[in-house]
Design brief:
The protein is mainly alpha-helical. The protein has two domains: about 160 residues, Orthogonal Bundle (Tetracycline Repressor, domain 2), CATH 1.10.357.140; about 140 residues. It has 16 helices and no strands. One of its GO terms (biological process) is heme O biosynthetic process. Pathway: Porphyrin-containing compound metabolism; heme O biosynthesis; heme O from protoheme: step 1/1. One of its GO terms (cellular component) is plasma membrane. It is found in: Cell membrane.
Length: about 300
């Protein structure tokens, strides 16, 4: 992490929007949604008040992770066009403030989740924050091109959290939800890395595109997408799956696999000619892919009381 001078770190008075941006609200949306789905589809009902408090704690914990990540990555964020306008490199929030906010929100969210739900879920939340802030941000991101693969676990923990809030433990269903996000993360981020171009190289981040080349990255996008398909389909045969989920999953995986094959077939000359249209399209598809899979699980749970959902 670079040392930012006081004048560089904070040149304008921050607003509430700047502090909110520090929490990575777009990432938080995915965390909250997948945790909420897992909580709602779990076999043990949760009181609405406890559920609401638990989801709020999970959201705050995700925001704390984002703040700690931005504090540590302020130097490389300043070098990438995609992140240069974040609160710290833009001079709106001082690094020390971000660190304080991240630590305070971490402690608050973990303790409150333990008191409101159970200490198993609180322990998972604590480990998730540690994994994202320390294992991924401080170690993996700058040391290995497998940063996205291993670090993807941080974004995959929310379903385990939601399930643990309801049941106090784990199951094959919760681990398959974890595996779905874990296997989805590499092709999602590598599709992005292909059209972000030199940002990661300029910042010294060993993304696969920089360390092994774009041809290897295209091969990996296809390989991980192929590995993702059976995980997504397997979830459809569990107690939280059903015909609706399985039918939608088949369609989504056919489309996603076709996109990955299209990326694999392209070379840089073709990609540059159309400004990476295919790569950008597959990246957008990857966003819908995950939300629709978890949305389908929610539909199955909603239909179950009427004898229409599940097997």
């Amino acid at each position: 992490m670079t040392d930012l001078s006081a004048s560089e770190a904070k040149t304008v008075e921050p607003g509430m929007g700047d502090y909110f941006a520090l929490l990575k609200p777009r990432v938080m949306q995915l965390v909250v949604f997948t945790a909420l789905v897992a909580l709602l589809v779990a076999p043990v009902p949760v009181h609405p008040v406890i559920a609401a408090i638990s989801i709020l704690c999970i959201a705050v914990g995700a925001g704390a992770s984002g703040a700690l990540n931005m504090w540590w990555d302020a130097d490389i964020d300043a070098k990438m066009r995609r992140t240069a306008k974040r609160p710290i490199p833009a001079g709106k929030v001082a690094p020390g403030e971000a660190l304080g906010i991240g630590l305070a929100l971490s402690g608050f969210s973990i303790v409150m989740l333990g008191l409101a739900a159970n200490w198993v879920s609180a322990g998972i939340l604590a480990f998730t924050i540690f994994f994202y802030a320390v294992v991924y941000s401080m170690w993996l991101k700058r040391s290995t091109p497998q940063n996205i693969v291993i670090g993807g676990a941080a974004g995959a923990f929310p379903p385990l959290l939601g399930w643990a809030v309801a049941t106090g433990g784990f199951s094959i269903e919760s681990w398959l939800m974890f595996a779905l996000i874990f296997m989805w993360t590499p092709p999602h981020f590598w599709a992005l890395a292909l059209f972000v171009r030199t940002d990661y190289g300029d910042a010294g981040v060993p993304m696969l595109t920089e360390t092994h080349g774009r041809r290897v990255t295209r091969n990996h996008v296809l390989g991980y997408t192929i590995a993702l398909v059976p995980v997504a389909l397997a979830l459809g045969f569990t107690s939280i799956g059903g015909p609706f989920y399985l039918a939608l999953s088949v369609l989504l995986n056919i489309r996603f696999l076709r996109g990955a094959i299209a990326i694999w077939r392209r070379d840089e000359t073709v990609a540059e000619a159309d400004n990476y249209a295919t790569e950008k399209s597959v990246f957008r598809q990857s966003l819908y892919y995950l939300f629709l899979h978890f949305g389908a699980l929610l539909v199955e749970a909603s239909l179950a009381p009427f004898g229409l959902g599940g097997w």
